[in-house]
Amino acid sequence: MKIKLSKDVQLALELGQPILVLESTIIAHGMPYPDNLEFAKRGERLCKENNVIPATIAIINGEIFVGLENDQLTFIAENDSVKKVSRRELGIAVSEKWNGATTVSSTMHIAHQAGLPIFSTGGIGGVHRGVEFSFDISQDLTALATIPMVVISAGAKAILDLSKTLEMMETLGITVVGYHTNELPAFYSRSSGIFGIHSVSSSQNIANIYKENIAMALSNSVLVVNPVPEKDEIPTHEIKSIIETACETALNLGIAGKKLTPFLLKEIVEQTAGRSLKTNKALALNNIKLGIEIAKKLS
Ligand code: PSU
Ligand code: MN
Predict the structure, then answer these.
(1) pLDDT digit string (tens) for 58-76?
(2) What spacing in Å lies between the alpha carbon of 163 and ligand 1's midpoint?
């Protein structure tokens, strides 16, 4: 597999310095411009200030980049023609010379091939509401089941059916640990009312669990669910009806498949007058902070 490493990532790999993987669909399809670029730059800066090398992954003109230069990051954030590329589309994106933003599933595949074990995102994909009709279950889950990494999230996105998503993660054998909580966080909100996940209290614990999984030749990831900081959360009772309305709108407009998640996120940003965007940025940066700590323990 042909991968273009940035100078910084190449050097960090040679020196065994900590590297944190970041995805680009959250930039290209999860947030509007220019907030997306501001977020992407802040995330990278946060890593560098803490002596961790950020490795944002994206596809530019059919080439797979691990670690983006500033102009490449700007291109991904600004350009409306950048496609959303999941794991199953990687071969298509490369052979057809796409410009593509990578989702959790494709980012994980590329990162693992590059020998990078730790990745921070916002919220993972999962089992959609109304799955009994749509059969819509994100490839993120199958990637988490088959690629051994540490993935930091604020839970699964609240637009999903969270209890079905958690059940599916059990079925697929994904290790789920809550950072200082035994409750599954709900992306925009800290609580979901769904309990029973294993709580961990330090980045060292998370690194240890990952290492034990690897020593046992388990192929699944350790998914860390890290609640959004209290000051940034939108409580469930405030966001619930907005999410339900957005899901109904998508159903009425016939929006499905890979377009669904970006549509719902955008709709919720509009209906909350930008509040959900602020929360999304805050939770993703919070996941980068934790990812930085774990990356140092793993390097
Ligand atoms: N986290 C966010 N915003 C996003 C995503 C994650 O805060 O936009 C992206 C990730 O790339 C994830 C994708 O893989 O949403 C899920 O898309 P789908 O539901 O179509 O699998
Ligand atoms: Mn889907």
Answers:
(1) 999 999 999 999 999 999 9
(2) 18
